[in-house]
Amino acid sequence: AQFKSWPRVSAQWIDWVNRLQPRFGDQWKSQGLWSLIELSKVGIPKQSLLFDCLIRFWSPANNAFLFAWGPMSLTLYDIYLFTGLPLIGPDSPYLIDDPAAPKLAPLRYCYPSYQTVVKQYEDSPEDPTETEHIMFLWVLIGQYVFCPISGNPSTEYLPMACSLSTGKVYNLAAMLLGSFYRGMNSCVANNPLSKLGGWLGSCKYGHRPIFPNYFHFLPLLVLCLRSC
């Protein structure tokens, strides 16, 4: 269920990027969005089996993988190297107060998927508008920065899309890292057995990882075996 928000590249999305790029490409570069938009045109397959193995070592208390040799986790520097997203500016999508941002009219209906947003601008004969750019940015940050677990567009990120359309720079790297932590923690919270499996699997191969925040999930018998 956690993979519902995994982005799927489509020809319609690539066409939409190419349609808007001549007019807004320079703005994307100045805002640090260019690399992320280019990455969005490349399909990245999800490694479900590898994820199932790694999640067993994730610690929500530390926001890191706890291996026998020590903790390991993504950092802001890693996010910047992967995506080129900016490391400056406001870092909370919920505290946006930008009076210069355009006021988007209320959406007529709730979009069931990102693809439906993309399709409404497919084969549009008109020149790109500011409203279309806002919708594009909404899909971009929803799919590739915030990644709601539902896998559907969320209107709570529309104010940020409106503000981004004016050229304002946000600390999207920190927001993406926070989304990664939230997603990992949600996976662990919804699959308590992953904690037990990770600990037992490590012991099987002679490792002694430390999971201080997992002990309240382990059965008493397992704790007794560990102490022995």
TrEMBL record:
InterPro entries: AminoTfrase-like_pln_mobile, MAIN-like. Residues 32-186 form the Aminotransferase-like plant mobile domain. One of its GO terms (biological process) is meristem maintenance. It holds the Pfam family PMD. This is Aminotransferase-like plant mobile domain-containing protein. It comes from Dorcoceras hygrometricum.
